[in-house]
Amino acid sequence: xxxxxxxxxxxxxxxxxxxxxxxxxxxxxxxxxxxxxxxxxxxxxxxxxxxxxxxxxxxxxxxxxxxxxxxxxxxxxxxxxxxxxxxxxxxxxxxxxxxxxxxxxxxxxxxxxxxxxxxxxxxxxxxxxxxxxxxxxxxxxxxxxxxxxxxxxxxxxxxxxxxxxxxxxxxxxxxxxxxxxxxxxxxxxxxxxxxxxxxxxxxxxxxxxxxxxxxxxxxxxxxxxxxxxxxxxxxxxxxxxxxxxxxxxxxxxxxxxxxxxxxxxxxxxxxxxxxxxxxxxxxxxxxxxxxxxxxxxxxxxxxxxxxxxxxxxxxxxxxxxxxxxxxxxxxxxxxxxxxxxxxxxxxxxxxxxxxxxxxxxxx
Length: 363
Hints:
The protein is of the alpha/beta class. It contains 16 helices and 8 strands.
């Protein structure tokens, strides 16, 4: 049995951290669903930048939209919504079968809005309405400015994937925003079953300290942070406050492991997948990691609910001079800036492709 099936049987959802029109047109995404136990999908500006830049699959659609007067950001979101809604249709049977626990796809608001609460909320409402798919998460960064938008979006009934979370503290703040939105729905007499996931980025921790700590600690920081966060997650799920909400019909916000592709060439290609196996969580994997996992025949042990040895490991990093609180803030800030950079590059690709297609049509 493939390790992907074993992980699925354990109770962890495997989502693909990629989307391209080629994946959809070739039937590859459908094959991943049937053969590799993939039950959802995530996207981000970097993924779309690479997809559109490295393929001609979008050219006809771009040409058509140019003819209708579309350009820039508006043109991009039409392309993205076409891909995302096609993917959502593929995952819809899983969404229905699991009663909305699984089978989700994610689309991010413009990263230029990461520090603009009002505009983030408006964009989330607009994208969700335009998609017209129940199994669509709108991704909002869990920045200080994003948290109020997350609360308001949940209160408005918009399913949210909270992205760019790096630490236990950032996760708890996002979970609190989710719960405030849910409790307000309960108080208002609205149905509280609004879906959400909270995405913890893992591998970037190890990339940040790779050359700054002893070899004995290499590849351990991201996993230790994830274990610490998982302990907090299990604590919130078991808390009276959350259980009262569940009793009123709320759905738990699931914890999602993001950035699980191994960046260290000396480490296993499934390092984070094997270390973070846990029921009622999600692991969203790059294609290379998904394929590597499918080639492995076994998994590691299940993630300990009490965080295991995370605090001992984090103490070792503190002794090595790593300030995890400062680094968490730095990683979140760098992550937001990285998505802005990819967004600007993506807009550049849209502009250059548009110009080239117009020139070709005129010649």
